Amino acid sequence: MITDYDPLIVLNEKISTVNDKIQLETTQARKFLNELFSQPHKVPYIRKKYCEVCLARHVSFEGHHYSGIKHDHKQITVCIPCHNTLTQRQTLWDSRWWSDTDSEFLKLSFLYRGVHDILQLISEKRQNSLYSDIAKSIIPVTSYLQNGAQN
């Protein structure tokens, strides 16, 4: 019947479907970020049986310290290609990343920078701009913390 194709009804159903998908993706991103920031001090080197970036399974995994091992204990389980990419991106960070520091501002800036890089790589691998949008939103925080660091 033609009434089954009423544009207002059809389009509102489509909008609801898209809205539900966005809400699900936002909830998943929130859960992921909460896990990243709330890790207890002692966690296994490899915590998951899949890459937390590209979702690959049945490959070799490594733990990636996303602030750098010198600056924080927090890590993420990644496949070797994703680990290589994230580690390569760390080498481009503020040169103070290479050294130990007592500055809590600087350590926190490296934590945010690592999360930024993870979110960017997730966005690239999964073709999901939500993660890129979140990553871009934390750049000012990272810059502020790096500029406020004394050493």
Walk me through this protein's architecture.
With 151 residues, the protein is mainly alpha-helical. The chain has one domain (2-148). 56% of the residues lie in helices and 7% in strands. The protein contains 5 helices and 2 strands. It has helices spanning 7-37, 80-90, 104-126, 129-137, 139-148, and strands at residues 61-65, 75-79. The chain has a two-stranded antiparallel ribbon with strand order 1-2. α2 packs across α3, α3 runs antiparallel to α4 (129-137) and α3 runs antiparallel to α5 (139-148). The chain starts with 6 loop residues before the first helix and ends with a helix. The mean pLDDT is 89.
Structural class: mainly alpha
* Tally of alpha and pi helices: 5
Based on CA inertia axes, which overall geometry fits? elongated
Taking the alpha carbons of the first and last residues, their distance comes to 72 Å
Number of domains: 1
In percent, how helical is the residue content? 55-70%
Instruction: Report Rg.
Output: 19 Å
Kindly state the number of beta strands.
2
